[in-house]
Fold:
Amino acid sequence: MRERATRKLVLDKQRLAALEPGGAADRPIEVSSSAVIPVRARSQRCPLCGGSLLLDEETATMIDGKSLRTAHLTCQQCGVRRELWFRIGSPLPN
Ligand SMILES: [Zn+2]
Structure:
């Protein structure tokens, strides 16, 4: 029973994390250059335990004609895997 509750909590946290900027392909974090990605990725914390994340690899994807980068991260503490989405582009002047 308790195990099931913990499992649900983990799923909730993962769902919440996906709603944050960079948590999904349709809400990438805008960066000015790809050099920023490892820095930004490592500054994130594990959504489940707050541990620091390790950058496994970075991949490039094209979605709707936009070039996106995905940082694949693993939590050093609990081992959960997380993907963080980025879009490279010069920020538009407001
Ligand atoms: Zn963790």
About this structure: The CA atoms of residues 21 and 79 lie 21 Å apart. Helices lie at 2-19, 37-42. Residues 46, 48-49, 51, 75, 77-78, 80 surround zinc ion (CB under 6 Å).
